[in-house]
Amino acid sequence: MSVLRLVQFTDPHLYGDEAGTLRGVATYPALVGAIEQARSHAWPVDAILVTGDLVQDDPAGYANFRRAFGCLGKPVYCLPGNHDVPDDMRRELGGHPFVLGGSVDLDAWRIVLLDSTLPGSAGGRLSDRTLAELDSALAGAPDRHALVCLHHHPVAMSSRWLDRVGLDNADEFFRVIDAHRNVRAVLWGHVHQCFDGLHRHVRLLGTPSTCTQFLPYADEFAVDPRPPAYRTLELRPDGTFRTEVVWVDEAARRRAPHSACSAA
Ligand SMILES: [Fe+2]
């Protein structure tokens, strides 16, 4: 077994209109710029992770998501965020190369994709059923190392407004995590900023968005002028891993074509 290479893109917030902007950033070109930079520096990868808010409340954005990721020749593991539209997401992204939720085994690792969305709420919660699925996904592969992915942050980000819309039942989540010995990392989006911490032996990782960022440690909502970003992960067979947040440089954003697929 060899090292698995993954790249995480999160919170692209796409619209049906590819020129659509979120807080001044055109989200589709920003995503394509992030993909292009990752293809220049991180390829080849074994799989792509996208941890929610694929669209900005606009079901037509899934067609642009398909354009951006559908032709990269890699599986794209997705889970929903609070700005996704679940029925449209399932319909538009059903089938290869997209995988929505569940768990996936790659060599010595099991990737678990959780739905933490709560209808009508910006905050998140894991249902009893999802917690049971997490428990059985971890129990079902005790010899695999687990990477658990969700949209909402399960620990405080030290940002008062953002911590009101985190994972509501994080205590129940960590009770399941703590009942197993094979979880190596928990990975999320939603926070539009970096986070790198520990819960006992489990690494906790939050990743900035491919579009606009939130100012860390802010009591009230504020935009951070930092650029789009993505995260690389190299998962080793022994359960150790290496990860890095990569900020997209302006030149890559200017070079980005209208579609990642057009440059494939
Ligand atoms: Fe988001």
Protein model, in words:
- This protein has 264 residues and is of the alpha/beta class.
- It has one domain (4-263): 4-Layer Sandwich (Purple Acid Phosphatase, chain A, domain 2), CATH 3.60.21.10.
- The protein contains seven helices and 16 strands.
- The chain has helices at 27-41, 61-69, 86-92, 128-139, 160-163, 170-178, 250-255, and strands at residues 4-9, 21-22, 25-26, 47-51, 76-79, 98-100, 102-106, 109-113, 145-150, 183-188, 195-199, 202-206, 213-214, 223-224, 229-235, 241-247.
- A six-stranded mixed β-sheet has the order 6-5-4-1-15-16. Strands 7-8-9-10-12-11 form a six-stranded mixed β-sheet, covered by helices on one side. Strands 2-3 form a two-stranded antiparallel ribbon.
- Helix 4 runs parallel beside helix 6.
- The two termini are 28 Å apart.
- The mean pLDDT is 95.
- The structure holds fe (ii) ion.
- Fe (ii) ion binds next to loops.
Write out key terms for the chains shown.
264 residues, alpha/beta, Purple Acid Phosphatase, chain A, domain 2, 6-stranded mixed beta sheet, 7 helices, 16 strands, globular, binds fe (ii) ion
How do the strands and helices of this protein lay out in sequence?
Elements: E1 4-9, E2 21-22, E3 25-26, H1 27-41, E4 47-51, H2 61-69, E5 76-79, H3 86-92, E6 98-100, E7 102-106, E8 109-113, H4 128-139, E9 145-150, H5 160-163, H6 170-178, E10 183-188, E11 195-199, E12 202-206, E13 213-214, E14 223-224, E15 229-235, E16 241-247, H7 250-255
Parallel strand pairs: 1-4, 4-5, 5-6, 8-9, 9-10, 10-12
Antiparallel strand pairs: 1-15, 2-3, 7-8, 11-12, 13-14, 15-16
Bound molecules: fe (ii) ion.
Fe (ii) ion binds next to loops.
